[in-house]
Backbone:
């Protein structure tokens, strides 16, 4: 699949929130995974300011321990927080020349091997929901075209989230957004359980859970919860039914 096809497909995915079984956790995971696949970045993460005014970090796409630790600092300082507060892209780029106010974030990012960091806000007019953080280990900044497309992805994701919240299942989406902010540990545990049970990598375990959730119309959080409780994926509701008698 070409880069242009991937970008077009991503916009369609970010618009697909008008469904009864909309899963906000999977939606945010998809955004970060697509960014890492399409853009010249090594890692991406969404930081949300919901509920409340402070940033929180839902689970990024298959996070490394170094990235997980960095995100804890990104909630308090760095480009993502600045992008959220200003509702504008923050692109100082090279961490060696980052603002002094980012001291803790910059030090941890460089220890983790990142050399460039930027962020774009999740915004719609006067409303900002959070920021999309992009990290790069190469010796050059993120290409300008990638940054423009990343902002477009972030804008599309914001519209999708706001639309989902205004539909008839507003309460469900609000609950899922709250759950997303507290589900990272659960998903990480489930990945470990599944990887050990099937002797696969953590990345493959995460992909298996997402595929299973989508194929059987489960929420990703519910799949992870079942894996932690039982050590394996939940069965499809139809799998336990007896065939209808003729």
Residues:
């Amino acid at each position: 699949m070409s880069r242009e096809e991937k970008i077009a497909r991503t916009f369609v995915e970010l618009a697909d929130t008008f469904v009864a079984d909309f899963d906000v956790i999977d939606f945010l995971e998809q955004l970060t995974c697509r960014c890492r696949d399409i853009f010249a970045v090594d890692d991406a993460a969404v930081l949300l300011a919901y509920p409340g005014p402070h940033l929180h970090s839902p689970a990024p796409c298959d996070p490394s321990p170094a990235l997980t630790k960095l995100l804890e600092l990104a909630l308090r300082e760095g480009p993502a927080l600045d992008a959220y507060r200003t509702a504008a892209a923050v692109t100082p780029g090279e961490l060696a020349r980052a603002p002094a106010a980012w001291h803790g974030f910059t030090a941890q990012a460089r220890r983790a091997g990142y050399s460039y960091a930027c962020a774009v806000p999740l915004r719609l007019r006067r409303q900002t929901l959070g920021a999309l953080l992009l990290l790069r280990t190469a010796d050059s900044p993120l290409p300008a075209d990638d940054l423009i497309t990343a902002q477009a992805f972030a804008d599309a994701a914001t519209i999708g989230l706001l639309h989902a919240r205004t539909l008839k299942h507003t309460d469900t989406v609000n609950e899922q957004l709250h759950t997303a902010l507290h589900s990272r540990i659960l998903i990480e545990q489930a990945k470990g359980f599944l990887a050990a049970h099937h002797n696969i990598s953590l990345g493959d375990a995460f992909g298996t859970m997402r595929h299973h959730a989508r194929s059987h119309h489960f929420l990703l959080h519910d799949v992870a919860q079942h894996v932690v409780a039982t050590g394996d994926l939940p069965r499809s509701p139809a799998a336990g039914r007896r065939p209808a008698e003729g």
Summary: The chain has a mean pLDDT of 83. Residues 51 and 178 are 7 Å apart (CA to CA). The two ends are 46 Å apart (CA to CA).
